[in-house]
Amino acid sequence: MTGKKYVVIIVDDHALFAQGLALLLANRPGGCFEVAGHTTHVEEAASLAAACHADLAIVDLTMPPLGGLVAIRQIKKRCPQTKVLALSGSDDIELADRALREGADGYLPKTSDPDALVAPLQALASGLHVLDRPLLDALLAGSRRTRSELLDKLTSQELRLWLFLASGMETAEIAQRMLVSERTGKRMVASLLHKIGAANRIEAAGMAGRLGLLDDLALQPENGQAH
């Protein structure tokens, strides 16, 4: 530690938990944390982070009615420098995955010993990401399944198209490479995005990188057929 005091906010509708965590952090030897604010309302989270110039935000994922995912999204949009630790009382892997996709820098179950939250918060503040080991194992397993499922349902032509998208090619160049008209190229791109569940080209590129497909795709033969 360099002696810096990290400003923390807590977004949690369980007042006793929030108060206990605030006391724990405030009384840590070395005084490296300052709990500057707490809110029980999701819609106040981003404003609180901005007002406090928060280094760290601890967010309960299961807050009603909007949920912690909305809080994470809004905090990251308004205060991208604020590191977010998501906490959840459930073992919902999908919820944890969505929290990370919304921008959370770490995830831990809410059943963790409060003392065990100190080291992860210090790691987040220093720029590292923190994940509960069982969650990491589950996410990796899910990623391997997703990769296999995608490869099984895509044709070699669609895999080549995905590579072109991931490399940033425009539709006209893609159509030329695929030996189709630009209109057909647009239709093929839209079909691929729907098939892989990507909202746009940027998300498709991110998925390709995250799933480790780029090296495999680069090896695909370039045997496009005219349409």
Main sheet characteristics: 6 strands, parallel
Tell me what the CATH architecture of the largest domain is: 3-Layer(aba) Sandwich
Would you state the CATH class of the largest domain? Alpha Beta
Helix coverage percent? 40-55%
Number of domains: 2
Low-confidence stretches: 217-227
End-to-end C-alpha gap: 62 Å
Radius of gyration based on Cα positions = 22 Å
SSE arrangement, N to C: EHEHEHEHEHEHHHHHH
CATH superfamily of the largest domain: Response regulator
Strand content: 5-15%
Q: Strands across the major sheet, in which order?
A: 2-1-3-4-5-6
Query: Which word captures the global form?
Result: elongated
Query: Average pLDDT across residues?
Result: 83
- How is the CATH topology of the largest domain named? Rossmann fold
Count of DSSP strands:
6
- Class of secondary structure makeup: alpha/beta
Describe how the helices and strands are arranged:
Blueprint: E1 6-11, H1 15-26, E2 33-39, H2 45-52, E3 56-60, H3 68-78, E4 83-88, H4 93-101, E5 106-109, H5 118-125, E6 130-131, H6 133-153, H7 156-166, H8 171-178, H9 182-196, H10 201-210, H11 214-218
Parallel strand pairs: 1-2, 1-3, 3-4, 4-5, 5-6
Helix pairs in contact: 2-3, 7-10, 8-9
Question: Can you give keywords for this protein?
Answer:
alpha/beta, single chain, 2 domains, Arc Repressor Mutant, subunit A, disordered C terminus, elongated, 11 helices, about 230 residues, Rossmann fold
